User: What shape does this take?
Amino acid sequence: MKIDYVEIPGPDLEAMKAFYGAAFGWTFQDYGGHYVDFLGAGLSGGFNPNGTPARVGSLVILYADDLDAAEQAVTGAGGEIVARHDFPGGRRFHFVDPCGNELAVWTKAG
Assistant: This one.
């Protein structure tokens, strides 16, 4: 078995599309204002307007070749950086999206 789909709570679908589109260049498929699939994230997924945003639990971690540019894109799109970590294999930052979900972005050690 493998992970096939990631669903991120997004009570404000328009805010989620604006943020993830601006920060990461994702595109979207709308389903009548009741659900949105995101495309271009490397894994299939969607925004669930009925979900409850969370900063605890499973953590979705994105990869970027240029972590500094990714951080600038996240803050430029309105995300809040809440943590930064260095570890033997690389470094990462955690951010909170407009609906309150915590995700992270990492890169390999240079």
